[in-house]
Amino acid sequence: MTLVNVEHTSRIYRQDSVAVKALDDVSVAIEAGEFTTLVGPSGSGKTTLLNQIGALDEPSSGKIQIDGQEITGLSRKKRTVLRLWKIGFVFQEYNLIGVLSAQENVEYVLMLRGVPFGERRRQARAILADVGLKGLEARLPNELSGGQQQRVAVARAIVSKPAIVLADEPTANLDSKTGAALLDMMRRLNDEQGVTFVFSTHDPMVMERARRVVHLKDGQIEREERRP
């Protein structure tokens, strides 16, 4: 099943009255259950493409569908609702709420969805255990290591069972050992639970674990690799 369908999208920015084309007629489809990474040098367009898939940025031209829904041209409010119900995010800066515990950070998206208190607590504790954080539910972000914070971010991204999880440079602030453990955990979630992941990265560890690698250069897809 196709979860993401990007059709001939381009993105043009203005810098000092000069048009800069961040994406140039890009088309790509992401199927359910994929573990895909977008790679390329700085300025290749990988983060712009990820942001467009995540409804954080609008294409200048072209169309994007998420889980069968056309998202191009949606209002800001409708894009917010789409992200809440369809998309999970993992960022390199973690983006946890500092005054909330690990469990409360994970519960937050469920609260926004209107899940009752007892049920969202149960789900949050279960997913934190699944990512290896059992016993750390009450800790604040500043009481956790970088790797633990990123695990909380992954738990928050997947607890609501979104159609797709987008991860922008998720290992950038982690040492190699911690980053490898985090990626292995996400690969396990992909293998065992069918969670669909799309990464934007230049980290070789992510590329090694991906089943599909999409190479971008100068705003265009240069080539793809698929692995078993």
From TrEMBL:
Mind telling me which InterPro entries this protein's record contains? AAA+_ATPase, ABC_transporter-like_ATP-bd, ABC_transporter-like_CS, ABC_transpr_LolD-like, MacB-like_ATP-bd, P-loop_NTPase
SMART domains for the chain: AAA
Is the keyword Transport in the record?
yes
Q: Which GO terms describe its cellular component?
A: plasma membrane; transmembrane transporter complex
Keyword ATP-binding: yes or no?
Answer: yes
Q: Which Gene3D superfamilies match?
A: P-loop containing nucleotide triphosphate hydrolases
Major subcellular site: membrane
> Domain named ABC transporter: which ranges?
4-228
Q: How does it sit in the membrane?
A: Multi-pass membrane protein
Localization in the cell: Cell inner membrane
Q: For this protein, what is any one GO molecular function term?
A: ATP hydrolysis activity
What family is this?
Belongs to the ABC transporter superfamily. Macrolide exporter (TC 3.A.1.122) family.
Give the protein name, as stated in the record.
Macrolide ABC transporter ATP-binding protein
Supply the source organism for this entry.
Marinobacter similis
